[in-house]
Automatic annotation (TrEMBL):
InterPro entries: 5'-Nucleotdase_C, 5'-Nucleotdase_C_sf, 5_nucleotidase/apyrase, Calcineurin-like_PHP, Metallo-depent_PP-like, Pesterase_YunD. Keywords: Hydrolase, Nucleotide-binding, Signal. This is Bifunctional metallophosphatase/5'-nucleotidase. The lineage of its organism: Bacteria, Bacillati, Bacillota, Bacilli, Bacillales. It comes from Lentibacillus salicampi. The keyword Hydrolase applies. Belongs to the 5'-nucleotidase family. One of its GO terms (molecular function) is hydrolase activity.
Amino acid sequence: MQEKLYFYYTNDLHSHFDNWPQVAGFLKGAKEERLAEGHACWLVDIGDHVDRVHPIAEAFMGKANVELMNDVGYDLATIGNNEGITMAHEDLHHLYDDADFQVACANLHSLTDTEPDWLHSTVHIQSDSGVRIGVIGLTAPFNAFYELLDWHISAPFQTLEKHIGKLKETADIIVLMSHLGISEDQEIARRFDDIDVIIGGHTHHLLRKEENVHNTIITAAGKHCAFAGEVVLTWDHDQKQLAGKEASVYDMTHMAKDLSTVQSLHDLTEKADALLGQTVAELKSAIDVKWFQHTAIMQKLTDTLLEWTTADVAILNAGVLLDQIPAGQITYKDIHRICPHPINPCVVELDGDELTEVIRASVTRELTELKLNGFGFRGEVLGKMIYAGLEVDTVQREDGSEYVGAIRFNGEPLDPDQVFKVATADTFTFGRLLPEVAKSAVKHYFLPEFLRDLLAYTLRHKFAGF
């Protein structure tokens, strides 16, 4: 006799709720249909469901996301880095207190005295016929951030070595919920033959069909829930082993909406607006925001970054502010709309030569006009770089581009051998936007503050009444 086992999953929603009513309708319908057919069925999320770029996630600090997941009927979830490193310790510690689903993340550990009540390393589920499934969750090890928030992420491969043997003794099938990314998933599949299925995320890869690596299938459904995934396992009761494993994804964008979810999102939006309605500052005049020009607000914000971090110099891109700041009462909702990014202040150490290279790169059109999507940035373009603690003279070419003429610190040319503490957005410590910043051996991140917290401070203390 053979039995079908079904998993339906989402990953990397990032609080993009535009497709959520369709996702909710699809998942509810799929689960109802499979259970009515007598099949085992579970709903799974692979993390980064929460992203504080959205006012609902911001106002409720992720708990509204959990409420929405409860309404759909999720059974299992793991956490992503957006749940893990964009909230204060206590907010994550209690994020899933009211979850109706089980949360597994084997490599997340609290550095305080208590672990969250909701946190499991592994979870065991079972079909009505007795097929035992062991589920383990893993998340990406961004310890430079986690440990500032009193969490630690243990190494994924060592964590698997610790748990897979035990799971094999107690489960017929092993499923990994992986918020590690496609490359890590592929390497895990090569090393751990006992893992049957890896449901992935984090790197926003879309696998329309399962990828087979050794004995394991890998699947993932992109980002923002434009797709949701299905895994179908066939268990042979006579052979006592899996007879088939397959995965696919479904386009959510044209699915029918779940009307109760539409109403829930409407109600949560109204509540979020009220929660974020507290006045931050009152302005007599509107404040101009321009992405490619020097403005008073960006200079004052960069000055605040310098003061906040007690660095030597500060560099910040004007594209972090997305909209004009109107006259009148400015609320937290306005601050969130204008600066929605989950970006933290950061200080790196650079010598004078490295700092010079950063400044030269920062005035190029390639950087200022870059349309960035990722590394915490949620804007349109990076924009003009603004400096504090430095005097930077630039010369404009006939084609409108700029190059750096002179750079002075405390009125003197930069000493190439002097080490400077440079404050900037943590965006630039990732990838190759500013290689010298990314390669710096010393990086200090300021958590849980976001740039918008510095914007609120700047408006309150440097613009209120003006």
